[in-house]
Amino acid sequence: TKFYIAVFTFQSSNGRHAYLFRHQNTLAFIESHRNFFMDVKGVPAMMIYDNMRVAIKEFAGLEKKPSEALLRMSAFYAFDYRFCNIRAGWEKGHVERSVEYVRRKSFCSRDHFISIEDAQSYLSAKCHDMNCRCGSMATLNKKERYKLDIDSLQKLQGHIGCFGLEEHSVDKWSTITCNNVHYSVPDSLVGKRVKVKIYSEKITVFYIDQKIASHERSYSNGDWKISLDHYLETMKRKPGAVGGSVALKQTPEGLRNIFRNNFKHNARGFVTLLLYARDNGYSYKDICTAYDASVNSGATNITEDHIKAMLHTVTENTAELQAYHEDQQGREIQDRADHTLEVLTRLTNQSCLGTL
Question: How far are the Cα atoms of 38, 62, 130, 182 from residue 41, in angstroms, in the given order?
Fold first, then answer.
């Protein structure tokens, strides 16, 4: 999969931040700025841009008209901007060199990742290392200069919304279609109109201002992004459809293994378990944990009732363990506070004796 990289560079310290996107479009342009401002917890007073299509709407002689996205961001975040001159490499070599440098330092040794989130976490960690590294005279005191750049930023007042807003009808398959990709919503909404927020890497669906679905965005033409939870009411009436459904194929592997090993001939019980988990706030991960606990306890012929009972046991043990750790931390804080108070009291008494 091909990705594009957006790089922000501080001019003084050469501190760099980078972000991955599937496309070089307006959504990626706005989202890269939002992510950068969130990471540095501030806004530069001046942003300098190359002659990018997403930043420049049109050329009028030597004048460049900014795009609506840039105007919107500069007004929201209160920063000034200017553009480099055309064919003036000495004005933008600093940034273009940063793109090549970040790409080479980050991905020369590793270029396989399970998701874009995994790749972005890796890239952010690499940028953090580069911003703290002093390897030559040119990077002497880089960490200190980077901190000065961060301290000089303007206060971040909020976060801009970087999404496209659309309205769609739910079809007979209980999906909406965005850019020729189907995304599932709860089956009770067939025939209804819903609002969709389209981000660069996800879409979120709302019905009467209530969030009802969220999917990782797909860029594969004709793809289907299906959540099994959205079809549970239908499958409760037709449990035989579970085994060969696209929804089951797109669930986590652990849940698919539970179905194959224990519910292949009891699909109704599997649907009942998922409905129970959904109505009581348990996740797929909780179900897999409860199933593993049942297997480790020596249970055979595990049914939905075994897993339901184990769900309560596992979550109660987790809650008790968390409460225990919180209690231990509270006691340690109290012990340190008592010790500090004892030392201060001793010093105060010694000072009073000296005065007398």
Answer: 5, 35, 19, 36
Token pair 């007398």 in the structure block, residue: 356
Length of the chain: 356
Query: 3-class DSSP state for residue 112?
Result: coil
Angle among Cα 12, 17, 23 to the nearest 5 degrees reads 130
Q: Is 301 helix (H, G, I), strand (E, B) or coil?
A: coil
Regions of the chain where pLDDT drops below 70: 59-62, 86-96, 135-140, 315-356
The Cα 80–Cα 44 span in angstroms is: 9
Report yes or no: 54 and 67 within 8 Å, Cβ to Cβ.
Answer: yes
pTM for this prediction: 0.67
Which residues are within 8 A (CB) of 144 and not within 5 positions of it... i.e. 6 or more apart?
A: none
CA–CA distances in Å: residue 211 to residues 27, 195, 218: 21, 9, 19
Euclidean distance between CA atoms 166 and 180, whole angstroms: 14
What is the DSSP secondary structure assignment for residue 155, as one 8-state letter?
P
What pLDDT, in 10s, does the model give residues 118-149? Answer: 999 999 999 998 888 776 655 667 888 888 99
Q: Please give the backbone phi and psi of residue 242, each rounded to the nearest 5 degrees, phi first.
A: -65, -50
11-20: burial string, b at 16+ Cβ within 10 Å, e else: eebbbbbbbb
> Residues 319-334, buried b or exposed e (16+ Cβ, 10 A)?
eeeeeeeeeeeeeeee
Structure tokens at 322: 């968390």
Strand stretches in the chain, DSSP E: 4-9, 16-21, 46-49, 56-60, 63-66, 80-83, 164-169, 175-178, 181-184, 193-198, 202-207, 210-216, 224-225
Q: If residue 205 lies in a helix (H) or strand (E), which one and from where to where? A: strand 202-207
